[in-house]
Structures
1.
Amino acid sequence: MFAPIVLFTYSRVDHTKRVVESLLTNNEAKDSELFIFSDGAKDESKECAVNENRRYIHTIAGFKSVTIIEREKNYGLANSLIAGITDVIGKYGKVIVVEDDLVVSPYFLKFMNDGLRKYENEERVGAISAFIYPVNKKLPTNFFLRYFNCWGWAIWKRSWDLLNTDTKYLLRKMRFLSKEFDVGGGAGAYGNLYCQKVGLVDSWWVRLYASLFLANKLTLYPGQSLTTNEGLDGSGTHCVETSDIISKVVPVQSPIKILDIDIEENRDAFKIYSCYFNSLNKAGRIRQMFYSAWSFVRRLLYIDCR
């Protein structure tokens, strides 16, 4: 039995079409149940786009079944995703999650389902991620990191139940773990978590990542990316244009076998990711050093978690 696919969509019909069409290139699609959560319009300016998107999703075929949940009100991405996954995973025990800004490989569903089956009873493994950043060195065929990426992912109920949405609690527990949480200092996840606390962002991802990280859970990755994010073009609610990622990441067009590997964080992969994230901050190194120092003072004085 294949895990259900949960798709979150809003107002970008072109993006929704691309992710659905790419999912249908997977052989497993015809035997997979698809749940589509369509968020309500935030204001009148979005109503036409939301309605156009909804007309399209009602035409989708090619999956084992298609279930559409249309929100009357605007939940916002974080609330919509948390509520939607909780509903589906409560029934099925596992889910594969995509958002409408992704394009997936023809072998995305195979890797996700193979991983879900292989590590279903391995408590140390918390999730599976499909996206690989455009790093400069070759990664292993499969590897584990404590870092969790959300651009195409899968999870079991046992891991989803670890989600803690209390940002103050997460910041308090993360007090002197921020460098590891930021994959050597450059990923920006701790800053994202702090921004969540003060209301500058509304991120489900950083709270789930923090929850899995604090529980010492590992995420399984393929050595090559099985997804790309085409929503970083400035058209989304939470994303800005990032041509670096768009131009360099192409979903792999061949299957990736899941090998028998040690269930521990791959430190070589960690170093490769750390170099990549830190290289993004070279232009603002002095500013980054200032923010890092101020972050340490905030954590030292418990300012972050008050």
2.
Amino acid sequence: MKNRMKPLIYIYEGDFPKGDAGFSMIKRAAQLYAAENGMEVPEDMTILREEKGKPYFTDFPAHFSLSHSGSMWMCMFSDEPCGLDVQKVRKCSWEKIAERNFGDRERRYAELFGEEGFFQVWVRKEALAKYTGKGFFSDMPQTVDENTDPADFVAVDGEEVILKEIFISGDIKCAYCVPKTGEDEEPEVRLLI
């Protein structure tokens, strides 16, 4: 059995390049992840995108998931597939969005907890979608259980995954998704400097 590396999340707040121009920040965070885990890093890491847009390294043995909202940038690294989402809570037509995109239990959760509940479900669904690489609008399990509580575990393609939130601040919601392995450690958060 191989030794697992602890998932790490790098966080940055401020101005940053978006889209493919932001790959330099991902590569910088990957270098820090590699250094902390005793890994070799290719001189010029290559990042490509899968058919549905999920980015991946072609020459570095780590999985990553990127998210940003406003001035908050976050990137999670793991030796297993992972998904991460961060979202600043803001005014929006959350009821209409939930009606179109949430399952019955997720809609009920949003109704019970309002805008904050909507964003809690939203980041969980996004983290799950990024984990699978199938996209937000694919057929995916509900992220709220039958008791209308956020589900800590959901089944994806016959395997159980962890789906949890990370507290950032009251007006920023964040969630991550990783495989359930039996050695389940919460990711540590590091500042990207």
